[in-house]
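fold-stage: in
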Amino acid sequence: MYYYAYPYFYSPYPTYPPQGNNTAFVNYVPTFVNEAAMSTNTGGTKRSFPPVNIQKLDESVRKFQLLMKQADLLVDKLAGDPEFSKQLMTLAQESNEEKVNELIVSTGINIKVKTTFTPTGIHIMLDNKVFNGDCCDLVIALRW
């Protein structure tokens, strides 16, 4: 038996599973956390935050609701009109991005549309940004 200068005794023969010849000895050393030393604030007081302003969030949510309505127009058309879906896939296979965008806009969408397509699917980005960094865009990713 080894002498540990640590006040806690740990048995090298665990009584919990697994019990067998391959049981490895684990030297467990408890860790004590000094929460006061780890705290980023000084004096142990709670940090104060400025009051929240939800104006920007509210604007973003309202603009995103408009995007969702526009996306709903497109998804409803794709779900309800198999001929439309067939025409969309045919134009995408021909790599005719301009006609694909025109077809998507023909569903009643009145915001900017950008599409990218591959042999396995299409990504349709609906964008109602007025300028860069503004809110919002929505990407519809569909497989075919």
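fold-stage: in (second)
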Amino acid sequence: MRTALVILHAAPGVAGVLTGLLALSPPRPDDGRRRWRDLYVGCIAILIVGMVALVVYDWAELDTAARVAFAGLGGLAAIMGFRLWRAHREASDQPHGWQRRYIDHVFFTYVSLWIGLLIVPALNTPAPQVAVPIVVLAVLGTGHVLLTRYKRGVLSHDAQPT
């Protein structure tokens, strides 16, 4: 049962890493990416359900530190869901500057997936207390640089008259 729950959690996380880049661009009527955005949201939703089910299944065997860590991950999952909902609202309402906020919301969820994906191997190193912070800082730093470049290109393109 535990293996099935791990797969239910991990598979949509990997799929989300693959589809997230296609969901990052602010929606335009003719961009043809709606299915990718919907798939990305579905991946995140299934990942969250899998994580909650896994934590509930393992709760009795978890020590206090693990319970605190998993409660924190549950909070992150809730924030990810909220950020995706906010991205949807920004794209639906399209208030002034919505594209930047849309990208920021989706990117938050996307970088969270990368951190989750890379923390697992870091936890299995001989010095996880060193490896985990390094992984997190590397993902956040790389993500910030790439996001800044991406937003500059996308937002300047969107500002161009058509």
